[in-house]
Structures are given as structure tokens and as C-alpha cells.
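REQUEST ID: PR-0412
SUBMITTED BY: lab tech R.K.
PRIORITY: routine
TASK: structure prediction, single protein chain
INPUT:
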Amino acid sequence: MAALRLVLCDAASPLAGREFEVELPSPRNGQAEFVVLRARFEAALRQEWRVGDRCKARRPRTPSRPGRTSE
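STATUS: complete
OUTPUT:
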């Protein structure tokens, strides 16, 4: 389980400056859980993706999965 403490930084939001915590459960059955920076998410949306396009994903090595690489 991972806990993230976040603060809303969008000045246009009525909740700007409010802090909240998000708990991410451990991945199960090989399903990865991740958080993506908004700028990268928006850049991916602007990309004109086609079937067969490749992307690069990185994930850190974890003690529970020895021997796996980070790329």
C-alpha cells in the first residue's frame, strides 16, 4: 500500500490549496498501478497515436519482484 499526500494547485479550483491523501493498493495479479504527471498525460493525448506505435514506460525495481529490470 502506498499513501500519497497531494495538494490541489489549480488556482481556478474552489478547492485550491486543499490537501488530501490517496491510498494506492498494492498491485494484484500482475496489474500495475501508477500515477502519471498531468503534463505527460496531456502530451500523450495530443500525440497522434496509430496502431503499432511504441512508447517507453519505466518502473522502478521493487524488492518483491527481484530480477526484473526497470525498463
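NOTES: The mean pLDDT is 77.
REVIEWED BY: pending
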